[in-house]
Amino acid sequence: MASEELKRIIKEGAAKEQASGSELSCLRPFELLDADCLAGLVLAEEKVSYEAGDTVVVTGQFDGTLLYGLISGTARIVRPAVKAGDFDVQEANEGDVVGLAELLASGETSPSGIGITALTDLEILLFDGDLLLEACKADRKVADGLLRYAAQQWLAASRPADTEAHRDLRIYRHLISLAERNGEKSVIREMPRHSQLAEQCGVTDRDAAAAVALLIDKGIVRRDYPSLVIEDMAALRASAY
Q1: Mean pLDDT across the chain, nearest whole number?
Q2: Which residues of the chain are in CATH 1.10.10.10 domains?
Q3: CA angle, 125 then 130 then 133, to 5°
Q4: Cα–Cα distance measured from residue 221 to residue 232, given in angstroms and rounded to the nearest whole number
Q5: Which residues of the chain form CATH 2.60.120.10?
């Protein structure tokens, strides 16, 4: 479909009503797009279902013309690795769009060797890759939305892995921020419960409890209910930074 024709469809709102109910908006790359932006894409979408264990795309037969948006379920994705003969195996979950990264990276629909297998029952929204590229050319907002999504993914991938050590650092730094000077020592007058500390630091209750217990075992802090006394602030700072 030519860009001018797509512009006409969007301008006239021919598919706007359909777009407002489209499940495309449930897919993460399109969450930032409004109904006008989705209108042209909705014209070519198709919803299909697979059972756990089904082969969605045989490895090596992905030609790039269709994108696979996961409405529900989990799939195993196999991609050729940089080293010849090797493969990278990942999982795609609800909201992911398989094939989008390859399409945006190449700027055209082309074979990429992807294989897709249903790990659970799947509902997939199929839509045309060429139509998405045309939509990017026809409407700057579509391109901007996908660019923001790609940037978010790049930033997330560039952050250090959320290992146990990183979780502990967040907890220790938060404890330092709660501390008040009380004579020669610092004190957290109302020590949060483990569930509260976990929520504040973005960790599990178990992570929060284990991190505090480790500090107590090392003699860096001690409980004095309802407070937490910091016996060695220098050691706590060293642990946090």
Answers
A1: 81
A2: 164-240
A3: 100
A4: 7
A5: 3-158
Q: Output the six-digit token pair for 149.
A: 């999504």
- 117 DSSP β-pair partners: 55, 76
Give per-residue pLDDT as tens, 85-111: 667 788 888 888 999 888 888 888 777
CATH of domain 3-158: 2.60.120.10
User: Could you give the CA distance from residue 121 to residue 226 in angstroms, rounded to a whole number?
Assistant: 49
The pLDDT value given to residue 50: 94
* Per-residue model confidence as pLDDT tens digits over 39-67: 666 655 688 999 999 999 998 788 888 88
pLDDT, greater one: 189 or 95? 189
Give the domain 164-240 fold: Arc Repressor Mutant, subunit A (1.10.10)
- CA-CA distance, 218 to 15, in Å (whole number)? 64
Compute and round to an integer the Cα radius of gyration of the chain. 25
CB 166 within 8 A of CB 240: no
According to the model, what pLDDT value does residue 1 have?
A: 43
Best CA proximity match to 129, nearest among 116, 153, 146, 148: 146
Cβ contacts of 33-37, under 8 Å, gap ≥ 24: 33/141, 33/142, 33/145, 34/141, 36/10, 36/139, 36/141, 37/10, 37/135, 37/139, 37/141, 37/142, 37/145
Token code pair at residue 49:
């279902």
CB 205 within 8 A of CB 198: yes
- pTM of the full structure: 0.57
